[in-house]
Amino acid sequence: MVAYILKRLAGLAFVFFLVSVVAFLLMHSTPGGPFDEPNMPLPPAAKANILRKYGLDQPLHIQYINYISNALRGDFGYSFSSPSETVAQVIGRTWPISITLGGVTVIVALGSGILIGILAAIRQNTIVDYVATFLATLGLTVPNFVIALWLILVFAVELQWLPIGGWGDDWRQIIMPMIALGLGPMGIATRYTRASLVDVFTADYIRTARAKGLAERMVVMRHAVKNALIPIITVLGPRIPDLITGTIFVETMFRVPGLGKFFVESVLDRDYPMIMALTLLIAALWGIVYLLTDLLYTLIDPRVKLT
Fold first, then answer.
1. CB 69: neighbour CB atoms within 10 A?
2. Span 109-118, pLDDT tens digits
3. What percent of the chain lies above the pLDDT cut of 90?
4. Residues 146, 284 within the same domain
5. Contact 226, 193 (CB under 8 A)
6. Per-residue pLDDT at 129 exceeds 80
7. CATH number at residue 211
8. In the structure, what pLDDT confidence band is assigned to residue 241 with cuts at 50, 70 and 90?
9. By the 8 A CB rule, do 178 and 108 touch?
10. Total structural domains in the chain?
11. pLDDT score at 216
């Protein structure tokens, strides 16, 4: 197990290197720069001083080496869009908001999706199954910004039950963003849970358990669900980084000052230090989640061996 984890971490470090190189080259290959103002261009001398200040006047390979050497020490530089704050300070200010929203969404959406999928598998071809299938299809096919518009029109404008947007003033402000973000993952969880359980229900050991006279609840929860979890974890695990790193549409529509909104703004503003830091952060989250997913396989099914 330890050897496997160390090998995966070494592979993750190599992935970081590739991601950083590709992101750095793509970032600098796009036309224009962070200090190009077509309407009000800076004087050449002033622009040269700014580029020298941030090291952008040096060759690309020197810029990359300087950035990586500083990043390995935890120094990601200063944000071009917010020169008074370091990149770490900006991320520390915005990411906890996205983590809070995404974490609540993960718990509610995946928990309810798995529960609905279990009920749909138990009650196949009944009204419960049809409603679960409808909700799963709705979550999979309708974009989250469209769902956000529906929620705002119904619950904020017409019924006036919930605030339209904002963050931190009222606990109800998290409800509509959570639903808009979570309906898609809930649909995926419902669909794959139902499909996995329906397949497991036809296995011989399930028939044997029922023939022994075990209660249906014990058959489902102790035997069927446990063996159906591996494909569910495979599908749902990669959804977690998407949720806890924010989304531009939902955070913008509900005026949530999270990381997703700031990421897109940094791309539009050519904020190079912020783009690199957020790209590496997202790559780290994906790598860690995939590693934890593989480790969970061994806890759920002892037959799975990590090599």
1. 10
2. 888 988 898 8
3. 3
4. yes
5. no
6. yes
7. 1.10.3720.10
8. confident
9. yes
10. 2
11. 80
Q: Helix or strand or coil: residue 60? A: helix
Q: Which of 138, 304, 297, 303 is nearest to 232 (CA)?
A: 297
Task: Kindly report, residue by residue over 161-179, the tens digit of the pLDDT.
Answer: 888 888 877 888 889 999 9
Q: State whether 122 and 69 are in the same domain.
A: no
- Position of tokens 């869009």? 81
Q: Is 83 a domain residue?
A: no
Q: What DSSP string runs through 20-49?
A: HHHHHHHHHHSSS-TT--SSSPPPHHHHHH
SS3 content of the chain, % helix, strand, coil (to 5): 75, 0, 25
Same domain? 164 vs 243: yes
By CB neighbour count within 10 A (0-12 exposed, 13-18 middle, 19+ buried), where does 8 fall?
Answer: middle
Give the model's confidence band at 256: pLDDT under 50 very low, under 70 low, under 90 confident, else very high: confident
In whole angstroms, give the CA distance from residue 51 to residue 34.
Answer: 10
Residue 216: give the domain boundaries: 90-300
HSE-CB for 126 with a 13 A CA cutoff: 7
85 is a domain residue: no
Q: What is the pLDDT of residue 40?
A: 57
Residue 179's nearest CA partner among 150, 137, 158, 141 is: 150
> With 80 as the cut, is the pLDDT of residue 298 above it?
no
Q: Specify whether 187 is located in the same domain as 295.
A: yes
Kindly state the tokens that stand for 92: 């520390």
pLDDT-derived band at 37 (thresholds 50, 70, 90) equals low
Cα gap 212→95, rounded to integer Å: 52
Amino acid at the residue 133:
T
Burial of 50 (0-12, 13-18, 19+ CB in 10 A): middle
Last residue of some domain: 47, 73, 99?
A: 73
Question: In this structure, are 2 and 147 located in the same domain?
Answer: no
